[in-house]
């Protein structure tokens, strides 16, 4: 069994090299089936993956937001209407009944993987 | 559920409904408001400001349309014509019949028109509603269009309203004559000494004042009007405005048999109840125990006590404070308490300086056994800065010598807010005492002016007590935060100084040394903007996407384009001054066609190309840059456009080359990062076709040079720019604009437009002029050098991206599938162009 087939079996998707991610910024990636994920690397090199779709405006733009922290909790501010979402849980910091989906993310040997 | 019918829809009516709905959590009442005017209640007190922009929206009272409240029905443009008290029904002009359980008359007052022969001729107006002002404006425009020379107007009445009306007419470009029967202006509020100074001050502002006389007759004279005053003066006029006071509108009360006062007004008891127990009257139509009040504050009090009674609580009108403070044409006038010294054995202390332009009087009691004097009232003209401190002291012992309290610092150097008793009323519009405010600070934890406003309503009507609120916070030991966000305890201006002094060039170093945490979407772009202004050479040509800078930028700056609602971007090439060659137009057309972009001409004389995806942006730019175009900075907090008219090159009225100057200014300031976006305009003559006075800086040509206006803007709160300097030669003009922009970029708050920046500046426009023209702060050399450096180092940001593979690599749709289009983006056709299709259901997890 080749390495690629093994990842398929565990449904892990290879996204890109870790150093392709800019500290303090996000990128968008496409998952099988057309879903989009926003992947962020913080300045402390933590990596988070959230649905790329802003639930308030429905635009697929979260990856283009500015990331930061509220009292130490990392978040991304949607570039659309500036709603904030906690990176680790996806919950909106303005309306706790709203959350975006989060995805498990792993960095192995310099590569970023997502569990879709 | 019972039905409350409110007759009339002015400010007091709105306050009543607001108070009732806020308290009636059980929904005991449904409210039907029957209104005569065609629009929801608006701020009639601020009516004169309507002339500034003719924007009805700016006068709107928040929530006055009762949108989303099923228990309030607002019927506009359909006045009540009769009330059948026996059947408890009100009938409107349209024939609508409305049953009620309780009725509140809030019919306000009508302008009093003295019975002068000719008072009803065309060209005679009253001053009460938005419609009145629209009619006056139409007459003014007609007069200006059909005559040479300056149009003239007579304002009948030299009181508060009359001077307001005169100011409005002055702002419309007329010469107003104010005719007042009493021997002085504002006879109710000011005394003879104050009246004399007031007359001088308004005369200096080009008003002609006739006191102690009245209009004998008004006659038609060709297409103008003619009036003769009782003192023999004759005036040729284009229009006449009556603003000689108001009379309560009690017709409905009379026709339905309610008791009315001898001099008009619906008689009520202290609970505002009329002679019919199911009917109340509030505001200017009410005569509470026989007395009418022509101010909004007592009306609000009446509204609140009636709302309380409807909900089963007691309420009684406590009497009112008739103090007034206003700024008429820039002249401060205030009167409070017993301004005319009618109290027995009262003493007046007057400080009058006609040269300095102020008159201040305090009325105090005799010395009591402890040697103290009570403050009874006062009049302030020309400088009313002491008003906020003095008015709450009425009825209390003076904390210092009366003369000292009238000193130049408004007495605040002698006595602070500490000296005020707890019952002193800080906000007279909403009857909020010092005690209520300090308890909001101590007990409710209000630690900002905004929170006090929300908690107590203080400062939410006329706003004149807002500085006192800040002082009370200080006095309570609450430090008011100017902090940008939780990561920096500094204001933007302070961060600018820190970055400028320390030569720190990265956000990471700045937050490590002077902040906490990782930053956020508030501080990161603000710091990025400061870094971009401060230093354009040290890092990678100063490109906004260089290194760590890229991570700080809002999405618009990050992709050098404006994000639109479906996540696509608009592309706007710079078209300096709106001037463009056919060849460049052709390239724009070709690019739009090739990439399928929606095309629109903007209000700023440029061309928007909408619907570009992230990965299309570099290809679009490549074409535009190759054709000699550059970034229009439509995405940045930076200079957007300098709009121009046709100017002297082509226009038969133009006196200077507005296009040439607009192009020069736009190229000079392109790329300048600022706290808010900046717009400018250059008009070639006073016809102002470039609408330069609606811009952050506007230039209007005169026969002698250029006039420079600053601090205008469109947006939600539009504002006209004000004249900073006139008849300038081009070099001086550019120097002043350089300094204005650099000073603004350094000193303004985050996302603060130029208008509020100037307004909040200590000393306002005069101070700004002193800094820019007279170099009062000694910083002009530094400002000039900073702008020279900006101009020298400008480089096109798009070109910078196209020349750098690393930056180019960011313009991709998906990191793992570059070039694959975003599947959520699609378009449909409308008016022969494409527009975004509404986005589908997102992946939302609900808790």
From TrEMBL, chain A:
Keywords: 2Fe-2S, Iron, Iron-sulfur, Metal-binding, Nitrate assimilation, Oxidoreductase
CDD domains attached to this UniProt entry: Rieske_NirD
GO biological process, one term: nitrate assimilation
Pfam family membership, one: Rieske_2
All copies of domain Rieske, residue ranges: 13-114
Transmembrane segments: none
Record InterPro entries: NirD, Rieske-like_NirD, Rieske_2Fe-2S, Rieske_2Fe-2S_sf
NCBIfam families: nirD_assim_sml
Protein name as it appears in the record: Nitrite reductase
Organism in which the protein naturally occurs: Amycolatopsis methanolica 239
Organism placement in taxonomy: Bacteria, Bacillati, Actinomycetota, Actinomycetes, Pseudonocardiales
Gene (UniProt): nirD
UniProtKB/TrEMBL annotation, chain B:
Amino acids binding siroheme: 689
EC numbers for this chain: 1.8.7.1
GO molecular-function term, one example from the UniProt record: sulfite reductase (ferredoxin) activity
Listed cofactors: siroheme; FAD; [2Fe-2S] cluster; [4Fe-4S] cluster
Catalytic reaction(s) noted: hydrogen sulfide + 6 oxidized [2Fe-2S]-[ferredoxin] + 3 H2O = sulfite + 6 reduced [2Fe-2S]-[ferredoxin] + 7 H(+)
Domain Nitrite/Sulfite reductase ferredoxin-like residue range list: 564-625
InterPro entries according to UniProt: BFD-like_2Fe2S-bd_dom, BFD-like_2Fe2S-bd_dom_sf, FAD/NAD-bd_sf, FAD/NAD-binding_dom, FAD/NAD-linked_Rdtase_dimer_sf, NasD-like, NiRdtase/SiRdtase_haem-b_fer, Nit/Sulf_reduc_fer-like_dom_sf
Protein name (record): assimilatory sulfite reductase (ferredoxin)
Gene name of the record: nirB
């Amino acid at each position: 069994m080749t390495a690629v087939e093994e990842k398929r079996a565990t449904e892990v998707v290879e996204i890109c090299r870790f150093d392709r991610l800019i500290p303090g910024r996000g990128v968008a990636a496409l998952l099988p089936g057309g879903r989009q994920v926003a992947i962020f690397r913080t300045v402390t090199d933590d990596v988070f993956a959230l649905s790329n779709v802003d639930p308030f405006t429905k635009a697929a733009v979260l990856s283009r937001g500015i990331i930061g922290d509220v009292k130490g909790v990392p978040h991304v501010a949607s570039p659309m209407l500036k709603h904030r979402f906690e990176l680790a849980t996806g919950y909106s910091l303005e309306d706790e009944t709203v959350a975006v989906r989060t995805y498990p993310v792993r960095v192995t040997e310099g590569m970023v993987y997502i569990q879709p | 559920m019972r039905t409350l019918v409110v007759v009339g829809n002015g400010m007091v009516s709105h306050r009543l409904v607001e108070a009732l709905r806020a308290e009636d959590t059980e929904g005991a009442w449904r409210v039907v408001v029957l209104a005569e005017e065609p629009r929801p209640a608006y701020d009639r007190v601020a009516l004169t400001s309507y002339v500034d922009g003719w924007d009805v929206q700016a006068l709107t009272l928040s929530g006055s349309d009762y949108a989303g409240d099923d228990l309030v029905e607002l019927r506009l443009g359909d006045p009540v014509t009769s009330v059948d008290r026996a059947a408890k029904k009100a009938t409107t002009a349209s024939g609508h019949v409305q049953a009620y359980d309780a009725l509140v008359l809030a019919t306000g007052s009508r302008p009093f028109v003295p019975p002068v022969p000719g008072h009803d001729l065309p060209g005679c107006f009253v001053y009460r509603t938005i419609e009145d002002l629209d009619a006056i404006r139409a007459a003014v425009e007609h007069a200006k269009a059909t005559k040479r020379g300056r149009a003239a107007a007579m304002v009948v009445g030299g009181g508060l309203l009359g001077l307001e009306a005169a100011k409005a007419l002055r702002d419309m470009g007329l010469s107003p004559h104010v005719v007042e029967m009493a021997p002085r202006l504002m006879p109710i509020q000011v005394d003879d000494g104050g009246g004399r100074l007031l007359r001088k001050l308004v005369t200096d502002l080009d008003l002609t004042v006739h006191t102690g006389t009245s209009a004998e007759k008004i006659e038609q004279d060709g297409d103008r009007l003619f009036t003769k005053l009782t003192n023999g003066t004759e005036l040729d006029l284009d229009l006449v405005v009556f603003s000689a006071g108001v009379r309560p509108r009690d017709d409905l009360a009379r026709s339905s048999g309610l008791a009315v006062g001898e001099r008009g007004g619906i008689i009520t008891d202290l609970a505002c109840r009329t002679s019919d127990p199911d009917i109340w009257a509030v505001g200017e139509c009410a005569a509470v125990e026989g007395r009418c009040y022509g101010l909004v504050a007592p009306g609000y009090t009446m509204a609140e006590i009636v709302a309380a009674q409807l909900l089963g609580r007691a309420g009684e009108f406590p009497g009112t404070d008739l103090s007034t403070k206003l700024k008429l044409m820039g002249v401060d006038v205030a009167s409070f308490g017993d301004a005319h010294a009618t109290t027995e054995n009262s003493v007046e202390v007057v400080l009058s300086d006609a040269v300095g332009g102020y008159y201040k009087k305090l009325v105090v009691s005799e010395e009591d056994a402890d040697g103290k004097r009570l403050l009874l009232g006062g009049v302030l003209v020309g400088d009313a800065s002491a008003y906020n401190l003095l008015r709450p002291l009425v009825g209390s012992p003076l904390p210092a010598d009366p003369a000292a309290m009238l000193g130049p610092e408004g007495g605040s150097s002698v006595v602070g807010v500490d000296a005020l008793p707890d019952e002193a009323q800080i906000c007279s519009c909403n009857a909020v005492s010092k005690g209520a405010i300090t308890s909001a600070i101590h007990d409710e934890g209000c630690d900002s002016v905004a929170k006090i406003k929300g908690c107590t309503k203080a400062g939410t009507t006329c706003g004149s007590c807002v500085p006192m609120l800040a002082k009370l916070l200080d006095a309570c030991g609450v430090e008011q935060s100017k902090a940008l966000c939780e990561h920096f305890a500094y204001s933007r201006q302070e961060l600018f100084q820190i970055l400028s002094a320390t030569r720190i060039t990265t956000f990471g170093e700045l937050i490590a040394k002077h902040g906490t945490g990782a930053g956020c979407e508030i501080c990161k772009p603000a710091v990025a903007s400061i870094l971009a202004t401060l230093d354009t050479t040290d890092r990678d040509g100063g490109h906004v996407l260089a290194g760590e800078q890229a991570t700080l930028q809002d999405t618009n700056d990050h992709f050098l384009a404006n994000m639109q609602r479906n996540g696509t971007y608009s592309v706007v090439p710079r078209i300096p001054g709106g001037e463009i060659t056919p060849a460049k137009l052709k390239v724009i057309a070709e690019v739009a066609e090739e990439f399928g972009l929606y095309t629109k001409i903007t209000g700023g004389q440029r061309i928007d190309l909408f619907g570009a995806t992230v990965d299309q942006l570099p290809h679009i730019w490549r074409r535009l840059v190759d054709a000699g175009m550059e970034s229009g900075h439509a995405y940045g907090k930076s200079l957007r456009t300098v709009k121009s008219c046709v100017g002297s090159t082509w226009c038969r009225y133009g006196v200077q080359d507005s296009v040439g100057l607009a192009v020069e200014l736009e190229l000079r300031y392109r790329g300048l990062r600022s706290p808010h976006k900046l717009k400018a305009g250059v008009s070639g003559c006073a016809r102002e076709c470039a609408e330069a006075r609606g811009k952050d800086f506007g230039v209007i040509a005169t026969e002698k040079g250029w006039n420079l206006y600053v601090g205008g803007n469109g947006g939600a709160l539009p504002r006209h720019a004000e004249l900073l300097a006139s008849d300038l030669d081009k070099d001086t003009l550019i120097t002043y604009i350089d300094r204005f922009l650099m000073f603004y970029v350094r000193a303004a708050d985050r996302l603060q437009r130029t208008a509020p920046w100037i307004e909040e500046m200590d000393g306002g426009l005069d101070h700004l002029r002193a800094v820019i023209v007279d170099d009062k702060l000694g910083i002009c050399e530094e400002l000039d050098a900073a702008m020279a450096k900006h101009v020298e180092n400008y480089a096109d940001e798009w070109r910078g991206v196209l020349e750098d593979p690393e930056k180019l690599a960011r313009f991709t749709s998906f990191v793992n599938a570059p070039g694959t289009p975003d599947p959520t983006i699609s378009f449909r056709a409308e008016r022969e162009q494409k527009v975004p299709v509404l986005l589908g259901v997102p992946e939302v997890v609900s808790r």
